[in-house]
Structures are given as structure tokens and as C-alpha cells.
Amino acid sequence: MSVADRIFRGLFVLYLAAFALYLFAPLIIMSAAAFNESRFPTVIPWQGTTTDWFGAMSADRAMWRSLWTSVLVAACVVIVVVPVGTAAALVLTSLHARARSFAYAVMVSPLLTPGVVIGISTLILWRQLGVGGGVFLIVLAQSTFIICYVMLMVTARLQRFDRTQEEAALGLGASRGMVFRRVTLPFLKPALLASGGLAVLQSIENYNTTLFVRGFETPLTVFIATKVRTGLTPAVNALALVIIVATVLGAIAYEVARRRQAARPRA
Amino acid sequence: MRDLYGRFGPWLATVFLSLVFIWLAGMVLAPNLMMIDYALRPNLPPAAIGGPDDSYSLDNILYLAGEPTHRAIFLKTIWASALVALVTFLVCYPVAYWMAQHATTGQLSLALLLIIIPFFINEVLRTLAWFIILAYRGPLNAVLTNLGLIDAPIRWQGDGGVLAAMVYAYILFMLLPIYNAIESLEKAQIEAARDLGASSWRIHTRVVIPHAKAGIATGFVFTFMLAAGSYVAPALLGSPGSRWFTEIIYNWFFEGGDWNRGAAYALVLLVLCLAVVLITLRIARVNLADVAK
What we know:
The structure holds two protein chains of two kinds. By secondary structure, chain A is an all-alpha fold. Chain A contains eleven helices and no strands. Chain A has a domain at 63-232: MetI-like (MetI-like fold). In chain A, helix 6 crosses helix 8 (176-205). By secondary structure, chain B is mostly helical. The chains are: A mainly alpha, B mainly alpha.
């Protein structure tokens, strides 16, 4: 290995380390600040270790209300997006090549629309119908683009589906409804569960779209953003740490389930 | 269509089609049409709606072109979003290349896991993290002062802070498409180029990047669109001198009380993003179907 190569290698390792630092330092600092006694969340100077901020966080009624709003919205979103996204995927895969690529472009268009625009256009339409911002519009506006994710995940799964299974069931005398219930749906189940999980995550973390259609509701992301502007204390960091831990555990559980699923031979 | 009916029977097929219709017509098309309608009408008191003054015009959109502050912020949002995309690309490309061509299987799955974890955490929290780091009396200034690199704390909030947080927020959208694209490049092609005497620089500019063009275009498109449409990073990390176009739109709706002008501005943002998407994809000769993977 030449000297130049060695220098290059060293620099590259340095760069990878810097990249990892960039990825994780913000999260670590934010989490660590939850344990600092300082009234403004920071890690330097360290004024003493405390877990009081977790108590302060869990005593905050407004926080619990906003968490409840987010959970309610996420539950409704899942109920809307999983059936619609699955229907979209089934319709899409039943189309012929040319119509399919057009339908595909239309169906992914909400992903290429800025989130604020989705919120605004939903708000405007429903104002005409006399409905103002609130849980209903948040669910509707979020679903508009979360359906796309479900559609993409179910479509990906459908591409590995052997249609002769449906035909065999039909040939054996099953009704079409029964084929769908007993053959197609069970095959799609992993994708449905995964997309449901993704939908919850997307819904809870959404801010840009929700901001415009929230009306007088305060979902969790809006609550946090408002706190940052009006009175940030490490109680918000404590909340952040709880969310981070929950998300990471969820992500790991999801990944483990996915790998187990992938490892299992296909029936 | 006939295929759908043949496959699921009339009842189920009709249910599927209705659901998709409600989504596309009711949730995607109708809101956008109503937004266009709003954008083209003047803002009138309720009594005058439907009256002689209630006619279509481009006034709301032209107002953006004529108002110097808004125009400046609009143009700045465009180039700043492009800059975010460019910086994100520069940060991600080496990692993506290393993951796709050099990393061992173990390193690769670890790297993928490490990269994905921060992106499961929501954007508001990620922005909050940057808010804390970049605070005037925050850790970054403290570290830099202690190292003697700066004499007095720097006010990071503003364009610099927004850039750092946005690049951070959109890494995954750039990294994964590029990684996928480079991964399909045969190692033999790189070795062949090297055997023929190409420098590393030339291998990247003439072999790897052209091969990964579709992935790079996809990353650019998503990053640009997310940056231009972002509200949280500029709202929390910006300074009065670094306002973002989405903040102006928000003000029209919730502070200025002129929804028509707000709708016009939102429409301009939408058209801008669609134009950037279509032009970028055209330049890179990528099909829309390959983008959303």
C-alpha cells in the first residue's frame, strides 16, 4: 500500500467517525440533558445529576392530553390507511402495463407533494364544507400521504404472490370472497402489519401537515415545538428520551420480526 | 379492471375501486382543485362572495412577484433547498459508496441499522436536538471556546443552523437511494477502470456516478422537496433574518387572515416542487416509477 493510499484510508476512517458523530451526538446530547439539573437543557456545564425532570414531565397534564390526541389520531389513521392502501395495491396490480404506470404516478404523487401543501389543501376544501381543523381533518390529511406507503409496501409483497394459488382455491370450489379472505389476505398479512406499524410512526411524528389542520388540538409534535418556543426545560428532553427509547425498541422489535419472517421458508 | 372483477368478484372489486376513488378524487384531487380555486380568487368579506368582485385573476400570485421581501424569501428558499440537497449529497456519497462496495456483510447490516435508528425518531425531536446543541450557551459553543478555536460564542441560529439540521434530517432520503444504485454496480467494472489506469477521481466521475445517476436524482428530488416544504427547522432554528417560504404561508393563514393569498403561495410552492421533480428526473432520465422505491 502506498503512502497516499494509507493517508487516504486514514482520512476515510476519520470521515466515517465524523459521520457517526454527526448522526448520534445530537440524540445523545439531547438525552443526556434530561438528567442535568440546569433549567435550560444543556450538558455543559453539568450542574448535577437528577431524574426530577421525568417527574416534572409526567406531572404535566397538557403533555398527557397531547399524547392522547396523537394516539387517537394514529389509531384512526391506521384504520383508514391499511384498507385503502391495500385496495390501491390490489387495483394497481390488476391493471395493464400502460394504465398501471399512469395510476402509479397518480398514487405516489402525494409523496412528492410538500407536507404543508397537503395540510393546506385539506383545510381549504373542508372549510367550504363547514368543517374546521381538528382530529377529523388531521386524520384525513395524514392519511392522504400515508396511504401511499401502505400501497407501496403491499404492492411489493404482491409482486411475490403466486396467483395460481387463488385459481387453485377457486377450482376447488371456494367463493371469490373466501379466496380473498383465506388465501390473499393471509399472504399479505406481514405487509399489512408492517405498514400498520409504519403508519403509526408516520402519524405520530408528523408535524408539517398536522400544523395546518390541527384546529384547537395539540398533538405531541405540536406540543413539543410550542414548548421549544415558549419555555423549554429539560422536562421536554425527558419526554424526548422516553420517545427515543420507545421508538428504538419498536424499531428493533420490528426488525427482528422482519428477519424472522424472511428466514422462514415460504409456505 | 376486468381482471380485478374476475379475480375478486363484483362485490369486493367494487369496494376496492370505491376506496381508491375516494382517496384519489376526494383526498388528493378535490383539495388541490379547491386550493387552486382559492388561489385565483380575491380575499373578500363574506357578503361580497359570489358578487361582482368575486372573479378569477392571478393577483394573488402576482402579489408574490411584486412584494420584495416575500420574493426574496421565496428565491432564497429555492437556492437554500438546493444547497441542502447538495450538501446532503456530499455528506452521504462516500458512506453510500463504502457501504455498497467495500463494507463486509456484518459492517453493512450494522451501518444500515445505525443509519436508520435516528430516522425513526421524529423530525421535531431531531430539530430540538440541534436547537440544544446550537444554543448560544450550548455545548457546541462551549466545546469550541474551551478548545480555543473561537474567542466568543457564535450565534449559530439562522441560516447555518437551519442547514445543519436539515441536512441531518434528510440524510436517509439521500443515502438509501444512492446506496441501492451503487450496490448494483459490478465490482469488476471498477477494477477494470483501475487496471486501465483511471484515477480514483475518474473512476467516480466516469463510472460510479453515471451508474448511480438514478439514485442520486431520487435523493436530490426528495431532499429538495422536503427542505423546501419544511416548517419545523426554520421555525425553531431560524433567526428573523432567515425566514423560510413556508413560514410566510403559515402567516397568511393564521396571522394575516388572507387564506386566498396563502393558497396562492402554497400553489407556487407545489408547482415549484413538481417542476424540480420532473426536470431533475428528465435530466437524469429516470422514470417516476423508480423513484418511490
